[in-house]
Fold:
Amino acid sequence: MFIFAGRSRRNAQSFTNLYYYRYDLFYAVIDLQVQELQNRFTEVNIELLPCISCLNPSDSFATFNKEKLLRLAKFYPNDLSTTEVMALDD
Structure:
């Protein structure tokens, strides 16, 4: 337990509890969640998310990005021919 000059023992206890819950426990839980997400999704799945986000119709497709759309099309070679992908580029 830490005791700081000018602070009571009760305040020192609340500081250490705050530190424990905020840093030790909270960050440990966040690390576990990140690890679980990394185990569940492959790199390809993670790359698909920003590519698909460029097709969001909100704000008149304000997030549209041609490079992301082309990258998304390359993930589906059985559905789109090379000619169709080239047409997307234009």
